[in-house]
Backbone:
């Protein structure tokens, strides 16, 4: 399985942008980069995903390096409610059916602390 | 719209007792289903996933088992709980392949005493 590497923790000040990095040097050409976040005592929630081009949605932006070996999740204005563990994962095509199902494996993520 | 139901929210069980956690999904067909466990202060560990009725794949050997008796029902079971089975259990579903998002239930906090 292609793996991802993230810093264990990061801090940000409220209302400032946050850039959460993720390295995935063994990514294959068909792997999608997904980001989820988990608030305390809740299940993870989807944030954003992309393949090659940068992506924007109402929650965040995803910047993908040209060689796709790294990506950055950007929160444009951090709020206290953005404090969570952020997970970067790769979803692979793999074997038809079970392969893509299996590729929902989470690493340890980055604990984001937002300071008021 | 699609929803996922997971119950109970919290559970306290004695060591050696059986366990049954249920997860159901509404509003979609033939989803991929997942069970995760999260120990206190730790990351998510994938326990089981299923791509169809009766098809269960186990990611780690353990004291737990999973079953999928219906298309949108996923059950996590144990015949005899251990203290180490304590944790936060999460059910999730997704459809399609790597270009789709996954949706998680609210979780069950299991404490084995």
Residues:
């Amino acid at each position: 399985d292609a793996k991802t590497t993230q810093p264990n923790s990061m801090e940000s000040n409220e209302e400032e942008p946050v850039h959460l990095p993720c390295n995935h040097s063994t990514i294959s050409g068909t792997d999608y980069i997904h980001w989820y976040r988990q608030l305390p005592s809740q299940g993870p929630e989807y944030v954003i995903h992309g393949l090659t081009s940068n992506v924007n949605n109402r929650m965040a932006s995803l910047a993908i390096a040209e060689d796709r070996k790294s990506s950055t999740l950007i929160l444009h204005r951090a709020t206290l409610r953005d404090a969570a563990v952020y997970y970067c994962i790769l979803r692979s095509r793999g074997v038809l059916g079970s392969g893509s199902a299996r590729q929902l494996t989470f690493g340890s993520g980055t604990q984001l602390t937002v300071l008021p | 719209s699609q929803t996922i139901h997971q119950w109970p929210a919290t559970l306290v069980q004695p060591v050696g007792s059986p366990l049954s956690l249920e997860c159901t999904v509404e509003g979609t067909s033939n989803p991929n289903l997942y069970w995760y466990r999260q120990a206190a202060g730790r990351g998510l560990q994938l326990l089981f996933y299923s791509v169809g009725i009766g098809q269960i794949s186990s990611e780690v050997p353990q004291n737990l088992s999973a079953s999928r008796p219906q298309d949108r029902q996923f059950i996590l079971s144990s015949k005899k709980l251990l203290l180490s089975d304590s944790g936060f259990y999460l059910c999730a579903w997704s459809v399609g392949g790597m270009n789709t998002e996954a949706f998680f239930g609210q979780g069950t906090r299991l404490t084995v005493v």
Notes: The helical segments of chain A are 98-102. The mean pLDDT of chain A is 89.
